[in-house]
Specification:
two-stranded antiparallel sheet; two-stranded antiparallel ribbon; mainly alpha
């Protein structure tokens, strides 16, 4: 039976949701990185400073025993008690006292956890409801992203289905919001480029609203907005009432507008010169030779780890896929990127488009990596990034051997740009592509589930 396009996207979304639930259950409580930290952030956004501690005490399982210790497994008796343990807190102690803007970073998790609190279920299930809502949000946004993506849907689907992506999607961390929004923004730009006849005010509002939320969640991803440069100018027609922004208008104002944006950027950088991110950029510009050296050493030191942790290194980065299996996934992804059909041949990327895709990816790689410079310096000089200590960035750059603390999941929001820039040279029938996709995903998740069961559950 032939599966139409909409059905395919629904099947992929259903598969995302199912494997997300499996991973969420297979990874024990407190074995998702920074889970307790994100609970504290959620509590702070609701004006409840004891929010995380209440849930932690009600679950009754201490963290720290299993992480990074492969010989330690789940205590089944302890786990069974947790499933039936009544909450120690009162409902009124957990409901929002105030709601701060930062709640947007975790809003699916907030909805799920508060629902569990109101229902009075054991805290473990309240936490699971938070994860379930995050996974549902990820699934819905990924579905719509695939639906509007005019080409290379398989590339986007494979990345959305990376075990690392799904692991983050089913967690209460802000990556469960950040990741799908980045996928959507990428797909939406390609939709505007190839599918929309006219790009109007509503389209630009959706584009910039998504970008602003992404930037608010994590500043280094600010450069994703550069993708809009691949949208043909002749398609833009924005009527603001007092002015009509179209191709002619943009060509007239782009140089002065660019200068104004640059000046405003420099002014903002000066006003917020004490900001860690700006200090890092300043140091790497002034000491550019040392900066290039550190980036090179970071690549040489962490390449294999980053490749693995982009695809699948679950838990506290202590449940990695084998490097050979990860390489196989990248090879398959590259082959999917080469694939074209009769429709795709009319949607070729120009050299300018490829330049923007790869240039945006390079900028994001650099700035995401630089975001870990402060962490590396603090750990190297003071033993922890949470202690009080000051340093001079230009001097400190010579006191670290490379940039540490980087993880593959930091690059997930934009890794698709590399494969989207690959020219489509390989013709493949729909049946062949569909079969290859099913085999790849089935193989990945059979492997992942065996890996997690062995890691956490089998003595």
């Amino acid at each position: 039976m032939k599966i139409d396009l909409k059905q395919k996207e629904k099947i992929i979304a259903l598969y995302i949701f199912i494997v997300g639930i499996l991973i969420s259950v297979a990874v024990p409580v407190w074995q998702t990185p920074d889970e307790y930290t994100h609970l504290r952030m959620i509590g702070a956004s609701l004006g409840r400073e004891d929010f995380a501690e209440n849930i932690y005490e009600s679950i009754g399982i201490p963290h720290g025993r299993i992480e990074h210790n492969y010989d330690e497994k789940v205590d089944l008796g302890e786990y069974k008690n947790m499933l039936f343990r009544k909450p120690d807190y009162k409902r009124m102690d957990m409901l929002p006292h105030m709601i701060y803007p930062s709640v947007i970073k975790h809003f699916p998790a907030v909805i799920g956890i508060l629902l569990g609190v109101l229902l009075g279920v054991p805290s473990y299930f309240a936490l699971q409801l938070g994860e379930l809502c995050c996974l549902l949000f990820y699934t819905i946004i990924c579905y719509y992203s695939l639906k509007i993506m005019p080409l290379k849907k398989e590339v986007m689907a494979v990345i959305m289905l990376f075990p690392m992506s799904v692991h983050q999607a089913g967690s209460i961390g802000y990556d469960s919001v950040l990741l799908p929004l980045c996928f959507f923004l990428t797909a939406f730009v390609f939709y505007l480029k190839y599918e929309k006849d006219v790009v109007g005010l509503k389209d630009i509002a959706v584009l910039f609203s998504t970008w602003l939320i992404i930037t608010y969640i994590k500043v280094p991803y600010v450069f994703l907005i550069l993708l809009m440069l691949i949208i043909p100018l002749e398609k833009i027609d924005i009527n603001l009432g007092f002015i009509r922004i179209n191709e002619n208008c943009i060509k007239k104002i782009r140089v002065p507008a660019g200068c104004i944006i640059l000046i405003l950027g420099l002014v903002m950088a000066y006003l917020f010169r004490g900001n860690t991110h700006i200090q890092n950029v300043y140091g790497f510009i002034v000491e550019w030779r040392r900066g290039l050296y550190l980036l090179g050493e970071t690549g040489r030191t962490w390449t294999e780890f980053l490749m693995i942790s982009t695809v699948g290194n679950l838990g506290w980065l202590d449940s990695p896929m084998s490097f050979s299996s990860v390489l196989l996934v990248y090879v398959c992804l590259f082959i999917f990127a080469l694939k074209r059909d009769d429709v795709d041949k009319h949607r070729k990327l120009k050299k300018w488009d490829v330049f923007i895709l790869l240039g945006t990816m390079l900028l994001l790689c650099i700035f995401v990596t630089l975001s870990m410079v402060n962490h590396t310096i603090m750990v190297t000089l003071f033993g922890s990034e949470y202690v009080e200590g000051t340093y001079e960035i230009r001097e400190a750059m010579y006191q670290i051997p490379y940039i540490g603390g980087v993880q593959g999941r930091y690059y997930l929001p934009f890794i698709s740009l590399l494969f989207l820039a690959v020219p489509q040279k390989l013709y493949a029938g729909e049946k062949v592509v569909r079969t290859a996709f099913v085999i790849l995903e089935a193989g990945i998740y059979i492997y992942i589930m065996c890996l997690l069961i062995q890691r956490y559950w089998i003595l």
